[in-house]
Specification:
Blueprint: E1 2-7, H1 19-22, H2 27-39, E2 46-51, H3 55-64, E3 71-75, H4 84-93, E4 97-101, E5 123-126, H5 131-144
Bound molecules: 1,3,4-trihydroxy-5-OXO-cyclohexanecarboxylic acid.
Length: 151
Amino acid sequence: MNILVLHGPNLHLLGRRQPEVYGHQTLQDINKALDEFVASSPHDVVLKILQSNHEGEIVSIIGDHIDWADGILINPAAYTHTSIAIRDALATVAIPTVEIHLSNIYAREEFRHHSHISGVAAGVVSGFGAYSYILALEAMIHILGPKTTET
Ligand code: DQA
């Protein structure tokens, strides 16, 4: 199964960005943890991990992977709360999607309580720091139906 992992704006500065909210792990740490999870998993998973600060680029990346991705993990970051274009892109490709947040968006400012993305996502993982990504990956493998490399 091919899984596209998309990190949205400002997540390239994780580790230095408000560590009291987002933790001390860098994006490289998170990506490494995802790769290690896949390497130690019996499931036949291929990850492609991308980060963009640009809404239109995220829309293009989603569309460009319509024939490649079996699942999408996305932390849309601030675009969660503003982007109908990213929601529409996900609805267009109709690829199972898990929305991810490091922080618990419902325990924060009110403007973060609404997500344009959740309505087109299979589910949301929010509030577990870097571990949100691993939980989301496990959920995606569950959704796609585990195909093990063993026979
Ligand atoms: C975030 C939460 C968003 O509200 C915020 O704009 C982000 C990161 C998170 O991972 O907790 O940039 O998506």
